[in-house]
Design a protein that fits this description.
It is built from ten helices and 27 strands. It is an alpha+beta fold and 474 residues long. It has three domains: 230 residues, FAD/NAD(P)-binding domain (3-Layer(bba) Sandwich), CATH 3.50.50; 118 residues, Alpha-Beta Plaits, CATH 3.30.70.2450; 89 residues, Glutaredoxin (3-Layer(aba) Sandwich), CATH 3.40.30.120. The strands form six sheets. Strands 1, 2, 8, 9, 10, 11, 19 and 20 form an eight-stranded mixed β-sheet that branches. The protein has a seven-stranded mixed β-sheet with strand order 6-5-14-15-16-13-17. A four-stranded mixed β-sheet has the order 25-24-26-27, with no helix packed on it. It is globular, with a radius of gyration of 23 Å.
């Protein structure tokens, strides 16, 4: 491998999809040197992963893009069934729950994938980073001290490399990691972003058309003038050309070809569920579609991908900057692979009509109770649980207290007093009461999960040392 003029960084992220950009933002706010490289000349242009689940909204809010997500997205429209050009009735495809003190987001948020990536890239640039485009990975080698990646733009040396380069991951294949799974549905699917004459179809509903050829859906994308077209092909192969997309819409709906004023992007795929055998080999990690590929029916792929990055980012930061043992990184696969496996099963069942979209799709109930970093329980919660929101007692929310790259030692109740002081990576906060917690001491990880919980601080200092989080007496 040619090693002249080698650039160096802490973490090399291969792929500028949702997981790669989310990880880059998290590392940048931690002051971890990182570089995102993308083989394509620009960000992905399509809407494919358009559903942002409540848990992912919490993650994006913590990463500093909550306002942008609210401004550029919107709630999922209610489905409207059509038959022979006539409206046959509405059907809501999603569980919609009112926001609560503990769960501030109650329903999925619709935003095209290209917009999510655009927002994350803007955040990354504000934090001092950016994406290097037209930089394809051609080879990699790792040793005890780091990874050397050969890119089309030249070699890069990094302490760690993260593959965020999609279902056909070049990195995963170079490592020889198998991807095992099944075809969820043998029928190919066409997906496209189209614009439709506003007098021909309203933007108030998610329009659904059933027929012998397969289902067809036109979903208005909030914050844009576009509809996302999804069409199943029980026979034949999709024609993804603009002319083919127009003819498809005219054949399966009451719209005419001329009603489709623009075809902005199109692609096709076969719904598949697959999981990588490993999420880590040495100093290389797999995230997002490089590690797990979902049917889009459950709206879990992008969300699981972003949360992979959220889990990995703080751990890389602790190891690279704060003296945590390298073994902390083993917990990434131990925590995220079981979650990905569960979400793959959920997506597949929803695709096949075996389960409705419900609370499980919102991902608020996911956690790491059985994970290697979870210790103890207190009040109503157990280590590994998602840390709920609530009133912080000073005009702020608990999520305001948690927001940022730090850990939070939260004490709840009159007798729970944090015996440690704030420092660079730790914030302490006390509330007299919080219904979602009960009472006790809770160490909230930077990714919003409880790492440790107890009625007293016994054992907390020893636990914190394993994370590279030194505690200082108050």
């Amino acid at each position: 491998m040619e090693l002249n003029n080698v650039k160096e960084t802490g973490v090399l992220i291969v792929g500028a999809g949702p997981s790669g950009l989310a990880l880059a933002c998290d590392l940048a706010r931690r002051q971890v040197p990182a570089q995102v490289v993308e083989a394509a000349p620009a960000l992905f242009p399509g809407s494919r992963g358009k559903g942002v689940q409540p848990r992912t909204r919490e993650v994006l809010d913590d990463l500093g893009v909550g306002d942008a997500v609210r401004a550029h997205g919107g709630p999922a429209p209610v489905g409207l069934a059509w038959e022979n050009g006539e409206r046959r009735g509405e059907h809501d495809m999603f569980r919609r729950a009112a926001p609560t003190e503990a769960e501030p987001y109650g329903e999925p948020w619709m935003m095209p994938q290209w917009r999510t990536q655009e927002i994350l890239r803007q955040r990354l640039r504000a934090l001092g980073g950016d994406v290097l485009f037209s930089a394809a990975l051609t080879d990699l080698a790792q040793d005890a001290d780091g990874v050397t990646a050969q890119l089309s733009t030249g070699p890069v040396r990094a302490a760690y490399l993260v593959a965020a380069d999609g279902g056909r991951s070049t990195v995963r294949r170079a490592l020889g990691i198998a991807m095992r799974g099944e075809t969820v549905d043998p029928s190919p699917v066409l997906v496209a972003d189209v614009r439709i004459d506003e007098t021909a179809l309203d933007r108030l509903n998610w329009h659904l058309f059933m027929g012998e050829a397969g289902y067809t859906a036109l979903c208005p994308l909030p914050g844009t003038a576009d509809f996302q077209l999804v069409a199943q092909f029980r026979d034949g192969e999709p024609d993804t050309t603009p002319e083919g997309v127009r003819k498809l819409i005219a054949a399966r709906t009451h719209l005419a070809t001329d009603d489709v004023t623009e075809v902005r992007w199109s692609s096709d795929f076969r719904p598949r569920a697959a999981l990588a055998d490993r999420f880590r080999t040495g100093r290389v990690f797999l995230t997002g579609d490089a590690a797990h590929v979902h049917s889009p029916a459950g709206g879990q792929g992008l969300n699981t991908s972003v949360q992979d990055a959220y889990n990995l980012g703080w751990k890389l930061g602790q190891v690279l900057l704060h003296g945590a043992p390298e073994s902390l990184l083993d917990s990434y696969e131990a925590e995220r692979r079981p979650v990905a496996a569960d979400m793959l099963g959920l997506s597949t069942r929803i695709h096949r009509g075996q389960q409705e979209r419900g609370a499980a799709t919102q991902q608020l109930g996911l956690g790491y109770r059985e994970g290697p970093l979870s210790r103890g329980r207190a009040g109503l919660l157990e280590a590994g649980d998602r840390a709920p929101d609530g009133a912080a007692g000073d005009g702020r929310r608990l999520f305001d207290v948690f927001r940022g790259p730090h850990f939070t030692l939260l004490s709840v109740g009159p007798s729970a007093v944090p015996p440690y002081a704030d420092h660079g990576m730790l914030r302490t906060h006390r509330v007299a009461a919080c219904a979602a917690y009960g009472s006790g001491l809770f160490l909230v990880r930077p990714d919003g999960y409880l790492g440790w919980a107890g009625d007293t601080a016994e054992g907390l200092a020893e636990y914190a040392d394993t994370l590279g989080l030194g505690l200082r007496s108050a």
